[in-house]
Amino acid sequence: MRFISVLILALLPAASVVAEPRSLAYLSAERSAGSTYGGVGLMGTFSGLDSSGPVGTVEIGRPDDGGTRLALAGGWRFVGHGAYLTALAGVEQKDDANPLGALDFWWDNQDWMTSFRGQWVKETDRNLRAATGFRLGDDGPWFGPEVSDTWQGSRFGLHATGIPLPLASESRISAGHGKKGNYVELSLWRRF
User: Among 2.40.40.10, 2.40.160.160, 3.90.1070.10, 3.40.50.880, what is the CATH number of 22-191?
Assistant: First the structure.
């Protein structure tokens, strides 16, 4: 009986430890003057989202031209000292298959964050976004400026990133103005 009590006590801390999330599901929508986009995606890792290691992504989206966009990519995620760097290479299928490359960087030190996202398809299609921000409180979202550059031109705006939602989800909303007019973006994600 004593052995069973010791075994139960030894297993209790292990049972309460939450495993590191290995996947990230996301949904994004954008509306700007002259265009809209909506997409869903999934990122998966073998070693966990907060650890360095191989990573893969799949995304399906619908641009305003009525076509369907499918992107598959694989690469490596480097994690350390509050920084996350993900490098991906793959293929995007819309009208035809094209090579895709992406680089995603995130850094935060609890009070400040910086992020950069770059995605290239062929030689002509690019989507670059950089943002920085500060956080009010320990668990609140980050607020700050953002700038992006796409094949449609440059845009400047403000963002709120890491807005807590039910079901352990978070969101980002941003809005601003660019060469083609005003824009608004909404992203939702959940780590699991």
Answer: 2.40.160.160
